[in-house]
Amino acid sequence: MSRLNKELGLLQGIGLLCTSLLGTGIFVIPALAATAAGEISLWAWLLLIVLILPMAFTFAQLGRHYPHAGGAPHLIGRAFGARMERMSAFLFLAVIPVGLPAALNIASGFWHALFELSDLAVLAIQLATLGIILLLGQRPARTSGSVQIAIALAIVATIALIWFKGDLPHAEQPLLPPLAGNWQLLPVALGVMFWCFVGIEAFTHLGEEFKNPQRDFPLALLLGVLLAGLVYWACSVAVLSFHAYGDVRTDAASLPRMLDVLLGDQARWLSASIGYLACFASMNVYIQGFARLIWSLADEGKLPRTLASRNANGVPARALLLVVLSCALSTTLIWALALPLDQLIRYANGNFVVIYLLSMAAGWVLLQGLWRWLAGVSALLCIGILLMLGVDALYAIGLLGILFVLDRLRQARRAITLRSEPVQDLAS
User: Fold this and answer.
1) Per the domain annotation, does 300 fall within a domain?
2) Which pLDDT tens digit goes with each residue over 89-107?
3) Phi/psi of residue 383, each to 5°?
4) Distances 242 to 34, 40, 275, 312, 338 between C-alpha atoms, Å
5) Does the pTM of the predicted model rise above 0.85?
6) Domain residues for 135?
């Protein structure tokens, strides 16, 4: 029996996942990838879609058979036990200090296209965004789904407008350029681009809220991945065609620059609005996913029971508040330290890849037949992506090691306590 209200349909699921994948990445990552690898980034997008699809199929099958608000950590726990569930849950939650502030940084950057903002004003916009997400999260899940559908349509329409007004593709910009010995640039681009397809694991936390999870959850996941991949590739073609890349400090403004060329000054408000809404949509899905993970752990007695409460709409309001407050604190600290955006993205990517790797390993244990072998292939692909991240993966690997040591210490203390209890009983 589902512990949360079943309110999501197929279209709402596609909207939630698609905007989660497109969100903060669509107007930033194509430019960052082009800066890193030039035209070869078009091949990198296709390669990334090929790498992601086996993982998407595996997540689809796992979510179909085991719909649960605990998402990826729950699946890992079913396969490898409670210890790995705890460790993967905290590893996933460790994205909050780096991943969500990075997304907020990108979102607030779009307002620079409209106004000259001070650093303090940027922080205020970021905190206000969290406040709006908190208010929206108090509503039923179908409300967020409907909002996400509208934002997804706006994103697709904007990319289509750029292609139409820009008369793309240009003859001088091949859709798939020859590799010409530049294949060594692919890992560099992929290290940044993987950010665009994180969101699948957060989407699994919503599986318990689908009206028909066995049918609609896998379809929503696969169609959302394919649609997002197509839009990313189309945006990358536009970025390369208009040369809207080349400086990591200004790559976040690639969308406003393209629209400014095509539509003039009137495009500033359009680009800023669409860019901000896309980021908002992605953060909304993630924060809702984090809240449901915390709620699920609390509901099962693995976190304080006070976090297991739900409001009148059946959503985990107290867990959501905790996530938003944690994100606000991290965002303020990163703002004070002025940490660079690309570094935050790479650190967060390491966490996501490790979570994906553990989820695929869980798929190998839990699934049967063809799906089991597909999960095994996906696990190998995750290892390859982790190696591409290089030293940036140390944040995730080091954190996983620390969590393992802390868990062993906790188990050792518990064992000592249990051994001492009979002695105390005899003494009494």
Assistant:
1) yes
2) 888 788 788 878 888 887 8
3) -60, -40
4) 12, 16, 18, 50, 30
5) no
6) 10-427
